[in-house]
Amino acid sequence: MSLESSLENATKVYQKLQKDLTNAVENLQKLDSQLQENEIVQKEFNLLKDDSNIYKLVGPVLIKQEKVEATENVGRRLDLIRSDIKRVDDQIKDLTEKLEKKKIEIVQLNASLTQQETKS
Hints:
It is a single chain. The protein is mainly alpha-helical. It has a single domain, classed as Helix Hairpins (Orthogonal Bundle), CATH 1.10.287. 82% of the residues lie in helices and 8% in strands. It contains 2 helices and 2 strands, in the order H-E-E-H. The protein has helices spanning 3-47, 67-119; strands at residues 54-58, 61-65. It has a two-stranded antiparallel ribbon. Strand 1 (54-58) and strand 2 (61-65) form a beta hairpin. Helix 1 packs antiparallel against helix 2 (67-119). The longest helix is centred in the last third of the chain and has 53 residues, at 67-119. It is rod-shaped. The relative contact order is 0.15.
């Protein structure tokens, strides 16, 4: 494989990694927003009395829900969101490392190509 095609392939992989990283960062931002919203709901639930009425929106209808059940649902949702945030954080770290390695490879290929053209 020629240096030009190697450089072209490495550049394509680099661009794909950049796109994947951008998507992962956007996912992380959405998850952070969901986490904040659910933490606010949890704090509000903590302020309520045990006999308070809680309603859950299901489609166009409000359905009465027990405080214990609603609190547990929010707690489970928070756990799920936190585990998703950890997974996406790990994915971002992995993609960042791959991007750095690919960047170094591209620089080396560019240097080799320039050196080869200089010799010609």
